[in-house]
């Protein structure tokens, strides 16, 4: 029997990024001070992250395998069926790892309780060891979060937890046919209940009449066309709606487009002229330990 593997997922801290750019702590401190900022809060957040990572590492049960990966390296890591993922950071980090999983449970750890919404990172580092043990014996409470999926006509597919964006790579005018209507817009957004408090919510607030946004555990999706342009050749009658499980939103590209999810633009699908895309509720769910 293969021992479980705890996979720690985290992002580089602001301090790490500053040191990469400015080489030394002194230069980083001067850069911030010249702009009216103090390095100490940055240092405090760095210390909180690394203390949380230390506590999680210490709580991994004996005999378990372990791995650690930064967010930028997620596309290069192969997740195994027996993995248990521990995401240490903000809620968005759980969304970033979700697309690479297929049922593996995720424990969200908040290194700075009270500063993050804590929708997906609900736990402190101190209880992570107990939660890892509960997962392996089937005593952890799991919440199944709906995901959204785009499938190209050549078989390529991409999943996301919050939302998928389909549009121009430079966020300029995207040209396509949506449900048969030719459109030119700033792109299409299709979101889940988890994503309904984010990008989709901001689009919904700008419209007089909108479809009801799905709840956190609903199986439905909401979709919006951003800034559809009316012209003699492009229409604006199909700009928003809902998708129940089993429904499909069909799109045919009439220019080179991209599809990416949850803000990870570097990990995306390239869509060529004439290709067909179907957006729908994914068959896989994200398993979040609550």
From TrEMBL:
Q: Which domain of life is it from?
A: Bacteria
**UniProt keywords, alphabetically:** Kinase, Transferase
Q: Which GO terms describe its molecular function?
A: kinase activity
What is the protein name stated in its UniProt record? NAD(+)/NADH kinase
Q: Which organism is it from?
A: Kineosporia mesophila
């Amino acid at each position: 029997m293969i021992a479980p593997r705890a996979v720690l997922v985290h992002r580089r801290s602001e301090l790490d990024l500053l040191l990469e750019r400015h080489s030394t702590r002194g230069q980083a401190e001067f850069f911030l001070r010249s702009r009216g900022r103090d390095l100490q809060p940055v240092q405090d957040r760095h210390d909180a992250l690394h203390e949380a990572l230390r506590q999680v590492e210490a709580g991994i049960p004996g005999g378990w395998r372990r791995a650690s990966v930064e967010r930028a390296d997620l596309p290069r890591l192969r997740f195994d069926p027996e993995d248990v993922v521990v995401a240490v950071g903000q809620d968005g980090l759980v969304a970033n790892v979700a697309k690479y999983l297929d049922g593996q449970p995720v424990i969200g750890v908040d290194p700075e309780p009270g500063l993050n919404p804590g929708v997906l990172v609900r736990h402190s580092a101190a209880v992570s060891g107990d939660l890892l043990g509960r997962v392996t014996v089937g005593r952890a409470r799991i919440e199944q979060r709906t995901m959204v999926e785009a499938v190209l006509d050549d078989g390529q597919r991409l999943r996301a937890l919050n939302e998928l964006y389909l549009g121009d790579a430079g966020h300029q005018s995207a040209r396509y046919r949506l449900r048969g209507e030719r459109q030119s817009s700033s792109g299409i957004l299709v979101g889940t209940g988890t994503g309904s408090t984010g990008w989709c919510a901001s689009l919904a607030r700008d419209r007089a009449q909108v479809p009801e946004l799905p709840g956190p555990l609903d199986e439905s999706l909401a979709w919006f066309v951003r800034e559809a342009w009316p012209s003699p050749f492009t229409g604006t009658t199909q700009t928003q709606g809902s998708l129940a499980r089993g429904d499909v939103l069909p799109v045919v590209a009439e220019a080179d487009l991209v599809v990416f999810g949850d803000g990870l633009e570097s990990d995306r699908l390239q869509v060529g002229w004439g290709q067909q895309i179907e957006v729908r509720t994914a068959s896989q769910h994200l398993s979040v330990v609550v």
